[in-house]
Amino acid sequence: METLRIHFGREDLTRVRLAAGHDAMWEFVLSVHQLALPDQYVPFFTTWRRRAVGAVTATGLEGTVRRLAQLMPATPYFPDFLTPVGQRSCFEAGLENVLSTPARRIRADMARLAGNYRRPPSWFGTLAGADTESLGWLGDAVRVYHDTLLAPYTRRLAEIVDADLSRRARDLAMGGVDRLLSGLHPSARWEPPVLTVDYVVDRDLYLDGRGLLLIPVFFGVHGPISLADQSLNPMLVYPVRRPPFWELSDGGRDRMDALSELLGPTRAAALHLVDDGLTTTALAGALGVSVSAASRHATALRRAGLIHTTRHGRHVLHIRTRLGEALFKGDLS
Fold this sequence. Notes:
Blueprint: E1 2-7, H1 10-13, E2 16-18, H2 24-36, H3 46-59, H4 62-71, H5 91-99, H6 103-114, H7 123-128, H8 132-150, H9 154-182, E3 188-191, E4 194-199, E5 203-206, E6 212-217, E7 225-226, E8 235-239, H10 250-263, H11 265-274, E9 278-279, H12 280-287, H13 291-303, E10 307-312, E11 315-320, H14 322-329
Parallel strand pairs: 1-5, 2-6, 6-8
Antiparallel strand pairs: 1-4, 3-4, 7-8, 9-11, 10-11
């Protein structure tokens, strides 16, 4: 694991800012990453990804999503112009900011992206031209992806991000920048005047009096991310803590509230998460508890007849029983 070192000057400490809300374009890009990654690496998003894949198939968007995944790969670099400086919660405003990027910036970013491919897709050159037709395709592709896969969850996503921002604002008010940066993320270490973050590449970022904008992201999972181009206004996006029921409808959340009263919130969460099968390690990661604690919760649910456990090689897989499925769905008739 490499390291990102963010160097603060005296002026920078007074210019650390929290975003006003979620950032629509960061959530879009990072959701594409989650859609492209295997389920076992992102257990929080298993249900969303299953639904998203079904929606993509039903609407014939496979080609569009494939191109978007090529344009913003889950690798150390994807184009900065897709996540423009100037946080915007409104999706249309964020997209308009992307589409109004100067052509020279788009060409530079696309050239850098193409350099990461042995054989870059031929359409990269067309988009790098930043003409009306190619930008029109990009706008249409992003809109249809957002409307199909993200819009149904935007309100709930915004609530979770806003809750994280409220907690960070309290940290800032009660303990200043030291408390805010010290508790930013498990992989971040604040040793004044340097914030060190586990990262995919080794890099130093000197703020030089520009301060730092902190943006919470729901779809991020692997740690804080910064822009590749250090000449841009500095920002750092970091993953929020995600409750396991985020993708459910209002009726589903009511049912989960009832299950939480019956089983306790952690075991209700476990019953929801196992769905078609989850290992103990993956369940622990999704619940945010230790493996031994996840095993104890699974044992309690198994003794109650709500899940059964089978062995697959060196791993055990927990799956809801018929009784567990009926209880989860609220249909015990």
